[in-house]
Amino acid sequence: MTTWRRFARFDWVLFGAMLALIAIGTVAIWSAGNARAEAVFHGMWRSNLVTALVGLGLYFAIALTDYRRLLDFLAIPAYLVSLVLLVAVLLVGDTIYGGSRWLWFFQPSEIAKLCVIAALAFFLGDDRLLRGSVRRGFRGFLLAAALIGLPVALILAEPDLGTAITLVPSALVMVFVAGTWRKGLVTLAAIGALAALVVLGAVYEAEKPGVSPERRARILKCVPLRPHQLRRVRVFLFPERDVTGAGYNLRQAQISIGSGGLTGKGIGKGETNHLKYLPQAISMNDFIFCVWAEETGFVGSIALLTLFGALLLAGCRVALVASDGRGRLLALGVTTLVFAHVYVNIAMSIGLVPITGLPLPFISSGRTFLVMVLCGLGFVQSVSLHREEKQS
Amino acid sequence: MRRDSALAHLTEGLPCLALALVFVAGLLQLAVRLKEVQVDDAADFSYASARQSLRRVQTGGVRGRILDRHGALLADNRTALSIVCQPAQFQRRTWEATVGEIAAAISNVAETIGRPSPLSERAIRRHVNQSLAMPLFVWRDIDEGELAVFSEHEREFPGFAVEETEERVYPLGTLAAHLIGYVGRDRGESEAGDEKFNYFATELRGRSGLEIYYDSFLRGVPGERRVLVDARGFAMREWTVVESSGGPDLVLALDVDIQRAAERQLDGQRGACAVIDPRTGDVLALASSPGFDPNAFVPTLSRELYERYAQDPAKPLLNRASGGAYAPGSTFKPVTALAGLVAGFPADETYVCDGVFTLGEMRLHCASRWGHGPLDLRHALMKSCNPFFCNLGLDIGTNALLRMSREFGLGAKTGLDLGVDMAGVVPDADWKMRMYGEKWFQGDLAQMTIGQGMLLVSPLQMARVAGAIGTGYLVTPRLKADVPVERRPLRVPAVFLDVVREGMRMVVDGDGESRGTGWRGGEGVPVAVSGKTGTAEIGRGESRRKNAWFIAYAPSEAPRIALALVIENGDSGGGTAAPRVGAILREIFGTQSGEGS
Prior knowledge:
The structure holds two protein chains of two kinds. Chain A is mostly helical. Chain A has one domain (about 5-385). Chain A contains 17 helices and two strands. Chain A has helices at about 5-10, 10-35, 45-65, 65-90, 110-125, 130-135, 140-155, 160-180, 180-205, 215-220, 225-235, 250-260, 270-275, 280-285, 290-320, 325-350, 365-385, and strands spanning about 95, 100. In chain A, a hairpin with a 2-residue loop joins strand 1 and strand 2 (about 100). Chain B folds into two domains: about 60-250, Penicillin-binding protein 2a (Domain 2) (Alpha-Beta Complex), CATH 3.90.1310; about 255-300 and about 320-590, DD-peptidase/beta-lactamase superfamily (Beta-lactamase). At the A-B interface, helix 8, helix 12, helix 13, helix 15 and helix 16 of A face helix 1 and helix 2 of B.
């Protein structure tokens, strides 16, 4: 196949939407950084852009290489290295905001996400490693559970529930599409969803007005949530209750998004951001969407959602046209990971899900995450570039 | 593997399509919710955003000036420079650290400009707690030297700036100080029930005199500024929404020249003088001595200075002219005379004065030790014969005298447009019983006929009495030039008034043996003057003192001026007060002789 033919398979929508999102992220980080008093944040957009360029280098390197070869060579070593890093961060990591998530200049948990996806695709994508009956059976499921469970357990130990949870949709989708133990999987997923609902219902039952303190304490004792998680769930269920305390972040997030109105206050002119009502510590990360939504309004929000939609649908199309199972799983895993982040991040700032510390892909200023997402999309692009033409 | 049937391929592709649907559904859900937040509820959230980040500040306008009837400035404004501190420049993690940072910065500047900081750490903390978004005024009204030093080093002091404020200035210093009053600096306040503003810029507010009486008039229309504050409340940006407008000028009926003349005559004494135009009620002068310089109260009245004034036994802050309460002494006799005439006492009946009036155990001496001999009412006024009026009073009774006193507005506020407006006392049986638990005796009546005893009046009230006798109607005195003239005719027949007028003319007129007690009140005055002397005795034995009075109106035939003057601890009305009134009248009619208004 000539280079020219390959070039025609390059997914321009996937690539273009990504570039546009990086541009938006640069602007949003510039604005959020300028609002900070500390001068070090004023240049954050620049270092983020540099990171994006480095990430784009990796993106092309991965995209232009055949993903099959990459998986063959790298899936297992990368997975193991990520486990080592996760252990290392528990032992020597920097503690920030109550969790030790940082190792030197990066977050191993972000790298682990991509490594788990690659490993799942490698093992479950086709029958080359496992016999079909094994791969689709309970043993395949146990292997997948181990591949996912090890890093998730380590991430939960940091503790970083949000990051651990984002892996779940990708893993579910990949295992399901691979056809591994479908009946059990569906049952398990249903049980999980039911359990989440039960927990939510229990917290609501305990916290709703008019419940006696004794009853409340009795119910909450059975709820498997840490205090800060319980607080977030409570704010999610009763957002009006404590807008200056626990509910402050959500309230300010909504004020900043809502006050943006239809067309926004203008780039760099978001008041809740620049007057520091929006929590400064996380305005560049978890709450970056608020900065963008306040300054560009509903129009800007929809533009952002449209770009993400284009990116995600392009990812699905790559999965659809992928010429083998590994490519398909890889594309679906990465796309689902991006979607999970986008959905949870935006939904939490408008009160649709409890507040969770998750970055918004391409827009938030987390550098490890940005590089990881770029690499992931590089794999997707590689799947698109290295697909075989179907024979008619 | 690669040769999947079309059906198998479709089955494997289905999850991808389903997932795409899930993605689209998720994003649509976000879009719908975003539409609610950003479009449907945008107004609510915009309001919430503004409410938490906007502070509305009421700014006071420049105070109106105060001028006399000829345009002479009595109270003016000058631009004063102050060094202010913007707390936003000194943000630290904790409030306590912020306060410390500000305090340290202030003492830094203090060292450079060589003026100690007037603010305690407590004051700074209070500002940080309560008015964080507002500039903190550190040094008010700095002088040129301090300004020069500060400007030179301004770059070294980020967060400090020079701000202009308006300060009050009284160009004529002590002149009419009691009347004009002075101002203080106050945190502004909202109208009742008005919660519109978060902050009020400090503004000048009247503390006494006209400054307080016409405070709302002078203040003008306040403006509005908005301050954008950050999440901690520090000011980030501010702008003006409504410019404040200056208050209107207060034009007085007062005549600075007459005021000056009156004050000159009181100089070095304790006393007061009220000069009015009896036709309109215009207060031409309202002088009180000793006085004070209101400029010393700018920019702020120091506690020590105020204590010194407040504890001075001479009471320099008291406006004696309208707020002093004195026994009128013999200046009350024209009122007694009118009461007698109205009650039927014949104008020409003579009475023989033997120098003393005896009533039971009480003996009232006449000014003339050996008695005036036989005299009628006009001459009794002219010579100020005590026994004559005591006799007259007993003849007509208490009620007739009370009625006439009240007819002249005694015992009631004059209606002067100034907070200081002493009603005085016109004592009656009820009043005495209330105050002293004693019955009203004939002796009380006898004392009252000659303006002694419990009767108390202010000089302004007596100027009004003099004017009313001269013109036939009682005016309400006014300080502001355009207050409508208010006057009512005396309910006294003109013939009786004429008798008293003749008597009061004789007080000033004549020479040699036939001259009246107040002849010096008309000395050298180019117009005919009518008046009445008074020497009110206060206290007994060692503490016995005399207040010297003179009331007058001029020209006698068509009065344009009515006045009353009292000197505390004087010798006599004729000797102490009358010559001073003469000097004032010479000043007036010397300057006014050509006009004849």
